[in-house]
Amino acid sequence: MRHVIVCLLLMLSVPVLANEADRLKQADFPAQSHQLVLKNQAVLTYLWADVYAAALFAQADLSAKQALDRQKDLRLELYYFRDIDRNDVIKAATATLERQQTPAALARLKPELEQLHKSFRDIRSGDRYALDFQPQRGLNLEINGTVVFSSRNDELAKAYLGIWLAPKGLSDSLRNTLLN
């Protein structure tokens, strides 16, 4: 229920464009990012309001799902269409992680999750957040092209990317589109 309330708060006063193609064009994702190629993209819409466009990048010779399953290089970019308070983002992420992860896993990840969440800021329309994973380097969180958090913990990378890409995440529709 808490997750629904947070999502409702995120949707207040969001202008809606004509269709998803318009929103994806507005987000203007590149065909390549850091030697990875664009696999799929989608718009997260909640209660008829577009929240963000998401794009998933992976190696050219792998599908997006293969890259995720094999923990290969993967990049998830989010282009926001509206302002969102950082605390609302953290609440939604936490609720999703609690749904997806065991209490033991959350306990192991807690110190790094707290550090990751401390790096968040209030989102402004037009901001780009990216989760960039490379097995030899780990996970980076970028805000508007600047790395604001790094971790070499593969379990953290898998769990946090799972907010968008694993079952019981933020949106099954978004997940399916990105991984197909």
Automatic annotation (TrEMBL):
Leader peptide range in chain numbering: 1-18
Molecular function via GO: isomerase activity
InterPro entries: Chalcone_isomerase, Chalcone_isomerase_3-sand
Positions of the Chalcone isomerase domain: 29-179
Gene3D superfamilies for the chain: 3.50.70.10
Keywords, in A-Z order: Isomerase, Signal
Name of the protein: Chalcone isomerase family protein
Source organism (scientific name): Pseudomonas yamanorum
